[in-house]
Design a protein that fits this description.
Largest sheet: 5 strands, mixed
Helix content: 25-40%
Radius of gyration: 20 Å
CATH class of the largest domain: Alpha Beta
CATH topology of the largest domain: 60s Ribosomal Protein L30, Chain: A
Low-confidence stretches: none
Order of helices and strands: HHHEHEEEHHHEEEEEHEE
Structural class: alpha+beta
Strand content: 15-25%
Strand order of the largest sheet: 2-1-3-4-5
CATH architecture of the largest domain: 2-Layer Sandwich
Mean pLDDT: 96
Number of domains: 2
Distance between the termini: 47 Å
Number of strands: 11
Shape: globular
Oligomer: single chain
Length: 228
Amino acid sequence: MNPREHINQQILNRQLEQLMEDAGKLHGHFCPGLAMGVIAGYLGMVKIKQYSDGLENVLAIVETNNCLSDGIQYVTGCTFGNNSLIFKDFGKVAFTIATRDGRGVRISAKLDSRAYVKSAHPYFSENYKKVVKDQIRTEEEIQAFKKMGKEAAFAILKLDFDKIFDLTEVKITIPAYAPSHESVICDKCGESIMSTRISEVNNKKLCIPCANKSYFQLDGHGIKSILK
């Protein structure tokens, strides 16, 4: 049984409002970025005509780590956890979805889409500036943000998608299926870690923190190297 069957049916029946409602459960709030992710994910799935089985039969490549990405993850079923989501830190409102033969579609925001999307709910941008950019996070402002965000998100679903996104058919190189690695116990902290993250120090097998090694971190600023 496919646990995503109800989502697949919503895509097939173009039930975008239901997709949005459920994507909000993953994202935690509604906003224009999430709406654009839901729309982009929907357009991609319709174009490739194949649903995710959670086993890397469909892969998504996102080019930004903001709200858009959560909408794409929910609708496509491609996530970091099932090794079907690839992140390229380009900072672009764009993503590619492809099947294992490498054939797919890249969906990117049109240059003039920002003003068009804003027209669906022009008052949201002012509240967004207060809460997100200026970090004015009083309870009153946050509640206004959530209310206006939901109104804006659902309003965007009624816009002409052709005025928001460009779709380009692509042929890309698909990575091999994700390997399975053995687990190893760190000789210092005693925790189980992936064997590929082990460091040999003075004949001991240590995890990255115990070896005090540098590592990469993905957060709201993108991918960055944490140097030790």
